[in-house]
UniProtKB/TrEMBL annotation:
Keyword presence, Zinc: no
Protein name (record): Putative Cytochrome b
Segments forming domain Cytochrome b561 bacterial/Ni-hydrogenase: 9-230
Principal cellular location given in the protein's record: membrane
Record-stated family: Belongs to the HupC/HyaC/HydC family.
Length: 247
């Protein structure tokens, strides 16, 4: 019977980021679905504004959480840092080929951090959630005049004699018609990118969860529980083990 060893892998900040991010994505998806289908759900303009405010405030938590994770990738432990999260670096392609060949052959390699294939998925997730964060902040400014760009948008579209800080959503009588149309044209590509990057994120998250379950079943390593406890239990010598890495 193989000897099991326990390794400290995911630090507290990495684990908190993971679960806060997952919760935010679920909540944003639910509220976003309601906003997109407000007409079919017979939601009033006031209701849409309330939903958008909720969406934006959850989005602010999402952005702050992502920002902290980006910072932590320079400060965290070995497995939290960029070189262990994203694909690339010396020997990466060789490691990817070796991992895939071993997986197909039914003798999968075990990693403490993300395996080479998993790093491709994590890169896709980070790319999509970053795109969601950036486009979401822009849409928050164009929809409800929220920071960081909301005050600038308000100055752009306010009608002559109307104080920009007094603008409210769905009040066209307060907007300069030409400026408002120009703003909507500016907004459109960000709205499209926000929507379709979300669809892409849904696909990638489904693939990620599927891959985690398959990897857990094929390789072991307590991948799922490790994101709660921070520790992986490995039955083989991990490919990315450091000297004195277990206890």
């Amino acid at each position: 019977m193989p000897e099991l060893k326990s390794y400290a892998v995911w630090d507290v900040s990495t684990r908190w980021f993971h679960w806060i991010n997952a919760l935010c994505v679920i909540m944003l998806a639910f509220v976003g679905f309601m906003i997109l289908n407000a007409g079919n759900l017979d939601i009033s303009n006031a209701g849409k504004v309330a939903l958008k405010k909720m969406h934006i405030w959850i989005g602010f938590v999402f952005v702050l959480n992502l920002t902290w994770r980006i910072v932590w990738a320079f400060l965290g432990n070995r497995y939290a840092r960029w070189q262990s999260v994203f694909p690339g670096g010396r020997g990466y392609l060789h490691a990817l080929r070796s991992y895939l060949a071993a997986f197909i052959a039914g003798r999968p390699e075990q990693y403490l951090g993300h395996n080479p294939a998993g790093r491709l998925g994590i890169a896709a997730v980070f790319l999509l959630i970053t795109l969601q964060a950036i486009t979401g902040l822009i849409l928050a400014g164009t929809d409800l005049f929220y920071p960081p760009i909301g005050p600038w948008i308000a100055h752009w579209i306010a009608a002559p004699g109307i104080a920009p800080e007094s603008l409210i959503p769905y009040a066209p009588e307060r907007y300069d018609a030409a400026s408002y149309e120009s703003m909507r044209a500016f907004r459109k590509p960000f709205a499209v990118a926000h929507l379709y990057s979300f669809y892409g994120l849904v696909v990638v998250v489904i693939l990620h969860v599927t891959a985690v379950i398959i990897t857990e079943l094929r390789e072991g390593g307590s991948i799922i529980s490790a994101m709660f406890t921070g520790r992986k239990i490995i039955s083989k010598r991990p490919v990315d083990e450091e000297r004195n890495g277990h206890d």
